[in-house]
Write a structure and sequence with these properties.
Structural class of chain B: alpha/beta
CATH superfamily of the largest domain in chain B: Response regulator
CATH architecture of chain A: Orthogonal Bundle
Distance between the termini of chain B: 33 Å
Largest sheet of chain B: 6 strands, parallel
CATH class of the largest domain in chain B: Alpha Beta
Strand content of chain A: under 5%
Number of domains of chain A: 1
Radius of gyration of chain B: 21 Å
Helix content of chain B: 25-40%
Order of helices and strands of chain A: HHHHHHHEEHHHHHHHHEE
CATH topology of the largest domain in chain B: Rossmann fold
Largest sheet of chain A: 2 strands, antiparallel
Largest interface: A-B, 53 and 72 residues
Oligomer: heterodimer
Number of domains of chain B: 2
Number of strands of chain B: 15
Shape of chain A: globular
């Protein structure tokens, strides 16, 4: 991202010392290390079961991870601007149910349905963004409320139960493959969609919008003073996030079908992927493709547990612990990296081996002028996020032979009963 | 399932295994009763189908003057909510009879006992509670029968050492735990390599589990503790281009249709959905002062491949979430109400 800085011959950063040096510098940042972690997990999975090394298997795995990776891209925009989007999973569920209800068997509605879903996604993002920026409600609360509102809508539309999937033509977006490809046998459509979005996201982060977004996340006041429309930049980030969730929903309804649980936990998976990718909670720093790599690492971890035949009752716990360790490690890596640099950035001491993230961005990451103190905060936040993920994974509150839900026509009696409902049939 | 049932086989929702009866003469009345129904939830296709059937049965009994109205509270899968619902019925519901479909066994026991203490008839159905104070407890044979039927079917059609993936909705529910408990024992005894997963019936989870298992090695069988999501499991085999497994689902239309379309070797175990009619019909008997079985055990027969075509034909036009053995063919509104899935 920052090779141009190498032209400054007097204070050549360490990472400019040839390809190997740059590579080493890249992987030693959390944004780069996640690629190493993802590859390590892949190797571990292949060692545990060589069948997973088959190119056809790998490509199918990449295809099926596309929805989470796409959600991570969307979440990246919001997190890097200093906010959270907890409504992603509910947006996915809502879009899945809309696709089932509106499109259904009618192939004639495929295009209008697609447009409708994207418009709905953009509208949800707009609401999230405006409530956060103009009404100044913390995004944590705004998007939590949006999640609840959409979950209610999903229950109303579906009754909390499975529905018939949309027609096979529409499902191709999530289920289809390009056949007869050399080496990898097939290319799943979702992987193509993901690749396009990765290119678009990388391009967008190099555009003025992306630069402004990072500046806004790093220091909104400074960004405002320098002329950025902070409210609009953040709102756009929320719109991108909801649109990403919509695309994930379109793929998932094709891949899996219509069920109100589809998309459940995606907001936490996306946040975890982004954090694993070394993107700083609180904003201002992180590389979008590291978030994508974070999503793959996360899914590889789940697959590895399957391969190792970890018992189903234990899986959530094992997942949670590994995520905490990984995230804590990522936070630690930042701290260590920063410590070296602060030592060498004392005035007048920028020698040849002094990569100085406060002035020289490291390849593969966006660095901003953060205080050292932030690194500690970062560790705390990351740990908290991991705990949230762990709780979300292991909470099973229903205790029934059903998943979740509500009846569709009950009326709220209000009053002290709160959640009490009365249904009067007939 | 080899048990002998009293009553007309054409009306399985009124059949029962012979046993102790509750005398109900004290409740006999000529006046229409107000029924109060504390429902656990209607958050899965099985409960939705049953709820529709129950409401059509209600119409019949309202027309015949047995029941004046039924007030229903839906607990939304929440024990605390259902306890509050029952206490509300007791104190302010002005109820002549209680119908309770408990959300969970232990938690709801005290509330059901309080309902019994009112001296009015109490009908419990589906999941049970730890008290026999109810006038009648209505349920199909149960989870062990399901587990035995399905596991035996897989054992018969597989060979020793074959791999079975068991897809379970969630832990901790008695009717589901007993299904798996029975099945697992039979798999172990017969050398079937069974590995179980919790899916919450999420089709994405199901597809990923099957895909990973197929990558690890061959999978010869799929066992489910409920048919919700069966189609996703079959699709995972299709997408991977693998031979379809021997499989047990449920009598949900989506599975029956996919089963026929793919021609796989399968069995559709049944947790009799028609039991949703029985509580109201029990009230009719109670109002007439007729004895009712204290534990009203309904029949529960799996649908085999030979019978499948008949059930598909009988339920043509029904939505995917409909259950073949819903038992509402003689009720008003058939078939439109079920076809359009008008959830009251």
């Amino acid at each position: 991202m920052s090779t141009t800085t190498a032209t400054r011959a007097s204070a050549l950063p360490r990472h400019s010392h040839g390809l190997a040096g740059r590579f080493a510098a890249t992987v030693s940042t959390p944004g780069g290390a996640i690629f190493v972690l993802a590859i390590a997990l892949l190797v571990a999975t292949i060692v545990a079961n060589p069948n997973f090394g088959d190119p056809g298997v790998i490509i199918r795995f990449l295809g099926r991870t596309a929805p989470i990776a796409i959600a991570a891209i969307g979440q990246y925009y919001v997190i890097v601007s200093g906010e959270f989007d907890l409504s992603m999973g509910a947006v996915i569920a809502a879009q899945v149910v809309v696709a089932g209800n509106y499109i259904g068997d009618d192939t004639g509605r495929n295009v209008t349905g697609l447009v409708l879903m994207l418009l709905l996604g953009a509208f949800i993002g707009l609401l999230n963004g405006l409530a956060t920026t103009l009404l100044r409600v913390p995004s944590f609360i705004v998007t939590l409320a949006m999640m609840l509102a959409l979950t209610g809508l999903v229950r109303y539309l579906s009754g909390g139960a499975a529905d018939a999937p949309p027609n096979e033509d529409f499902r191709q977006l999530g289920r289809g493959i390009v056949e007869d490809v050399p080496v990898v046998e097939v290319i799943p459509y979702p992987l193509i969609i993901l690749t396009v979005l990765c290119v678009a996201a990388t391009w967008l982060m190099r555009r003025p919008f992306g630069r402004t977004l990072l500046a806004v996340g790093d220091n909104p006041d400074a960004a405002r003073v320098s002329g950025a429309r902070v409210w609009w930049v953040k709102t756009q980030a929320f719109i991108l996030s909801s649109l990403a969730a919509t695309v994930a929903g379109i793929i998932l309804v094709g891949y899996a079908g219509v069920h109100p649980t589809v998309g459940e936990g995606y907001e936490f998976a996306a946040i975890t992927a982004v954090v694993l990718g070394g993107v700083v909670l609180g904003g201002g720093r992180g590389w979008v493709l590291s978030a994508v790599a974070g999503a793959f690492a996360l899914e590889l971890l789940f697959t590895l547990l399957t391969v190792l035949e970890v018992e189903s009752t234990w899986r959530d716990t094992v997942q949670g612990v590994i995520i905490i360790v990984a995230v804590a490690f990522a936070a630690r890596a930042w701290t260590l990296g920063r410590r070296t640099s602060t030592r060498s950035t004392t005035p007048g001491s920028s020698g040849p081996d002094s990569p100085s993230p406060t002035t020289e961005p490291t390849p593969g990451t966006h660095t901003g002028g953060k205080l050292m103190r932030r690194t500690h905060l970062r560790g705390v936040l990351a740990g908290a996020a991991a705990l949230v993920v762990l709780t979300a994974c292991s909470t099973d509150d229903s205790g029934t032979d059903s998943t979740s839900g509500d009846d569709t026509t009950s009326e709220n009696t209000g009053g002290l009963g709160g959640r009490q409902r009365v249904v009067r049939p007939g | 399932m080899d048990a002998t049932f009293e009553g007309n086989p054409d009306e399985p929702w009124l059949q029962y295994i012979d046993g102790p009866m509750t005398d109900t003469q004290q409740y006999a009345t000529d006046k229409p009763m107000k029924a109060c129904f504390a429902n656990a939830s209607i958050s899965n296709p099985w409960r939705q189908t049953g709820w529709i059937t129950m409401n059509q049965q209600l119409k019949v009994l309202q027309d015949s003057g047995v029941i004046s109205e039924m007030e229903t509270r839906d607990a939304g899968d929440d024990d605390n909510q259902q306890i509050a619902d029952i206490d509300y019925f007791i104190s302010e519901g002005n109820c002549d009879a209680f119908i309770i479909s408990p959300n969970s066994t232990a938690a709801l026991t005290p509330a059901v006992e309080r309902a019994c203490e009112t001296g009015k008839p109490v009908v419990v159905f589906d999941r049970g509670v730890e008290t026999d104070c109810a006038t009648t407890f209505i349920h199909p044979i149960g989870g062990y029968a399901w587990g035995i039927a399905t596991a035996n079917f897989l054992v018969e059609n597989l060979e020793e050492g074959d791999k079975v993936v068991a897809l379970r909705i969630l832990p901790g529910v008695d009717v589901l735990e007993t299904r798996w408990g029975a099945a697992k024992q039979i798999f172990d005894e017969n050398g079937i390599d069974a590995v179980d997963y919790f899916t919450e019936a999420n089709p994405e989870t199901i597809k990923q589990i099957i895909t990973d298992e197929l990558t690890k090695g061959e999978v010869q069988g799929v066992w489910m503790d409920a048919g919700d999501g069966a189609v996703a499991a079959i699709e995972a085999f299709e997408d991977a281009g693998m031979e379809l497994p021997v499989m047990t689902g449920e009598d949900e239309m989506s599975f029956l249709r996919k089963w026929e379309e793919t021609g796989l070797t399968g069995l559709a175990p049944v947790y009799s959905n028609f039991q949703w009619r029985t509580p109201l019909l029990a009230l009719e008997k109670i109002a007439a002062g007729e004895p009712v079985p204290t534990e009203w055990v309904l029949p529960q027969e799996p649908i085999t491949e030979d019978q499948r075509a008949d059930y598909l034909e009988a339920n043509e036009g029904m939505p995917d979430g409909h259950y073949a053995k819903f038992g509402g063919e003689d009720l008003p509104g058939y078939p439109e109400v079920w076809q359009e899935r008008q959830i009251p």
